[in-house]
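Structure tokens please, single chain.
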Amino acid sequence: MSIQGASAGSATSAEAHAIGADAAADLAATLKAIADPLRLRMLSAIATSATGETTAGELATLTAVSQPTVSHHLKVLREVGLLTSDRRGTWVWYRIAPAYRGAVTTLLDRFAPVAVEVHGAHAAAAHGEVSGLADVDPALDRIAASLAERFTGTPQRECYRVVRESYTALARRGGNAAHLVPLTEHFARQRIIDAEKARAGTETHLPQVLFVCVANAGRSQLAAALLQHYAGDRVVVRSAGSAPASDVHAAVRSILDELGDPAAADAVDDVTRFYPKPLTDDAVRAADVVVTMGCGDACPVLPDKRYEDWAVGDPALASPAGVAAIRDELDQRVRDLLASLLPTDGTLTTEGTR
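Here you go.
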């Protein structure tokens, strides 16, 4: 084949795989409208508002620019179809256009946290950090044998399967390889407990709540820590992510450390106290209440489960004041949830127990 022929073939192949020129132009116009820090903050504020809408006056609190500048940014987002608006009295209310709701959720909950994490992880990548350990089999075998001895209702071969699946799933997230073995032991033990509970199907167990978000690195971790803080050993608390990150967001780590209680019923060491973990079917089956936060349809919907979806901002992308506001909102939601789970328990007041 001639060089000319090869070039023509390559061009044809590229054209077959690339999006169309008109679609690319439309997409570029929308991305250009979004590609501004203040507009991204506005989108996130609207998308995670409890009512799904807000006013220009509320959005103006995000910045020190003038009201006309805020209105200009909103106009740009409205002109590309991302926002709709209507006037009620003296206020104009803005909301995400219905056709764009899923796309904006994907942008904020999936793409944005990864972009932020990758942007800050170039130094670690340059040092070539590994995602797993070279000779881990003996350690995994010891964990599996220990779990099989402790949980006699689970066959030994099942313990081995769960341990190796857990290790693989946690290694896939990346992060510090030195922590993989203790994390695997904790995660596998939690999975076996949930599986045995789901099989037992008893109605006399403690209520169990599962918090799910995308990365299990912010919202779901905060909510789980708050519920554990208030409920103690009266409620079993779990959290998971549909696409778990390698570590908990730095913005919420200090809050989690404040809430973490090493004397709790399921006490663990500092490495395994808070870490992102994958969503499993057993965790859903064992839960009485499943609370989702931005993970869309990733969570299985099973009968006889109570599902709640909380529209809460992502602390990975929030300012320090935003993280504090998210924490306060989760605090109220968690206390309301606990009151519904333990309606006759008078130990939790409206002011909490902190």
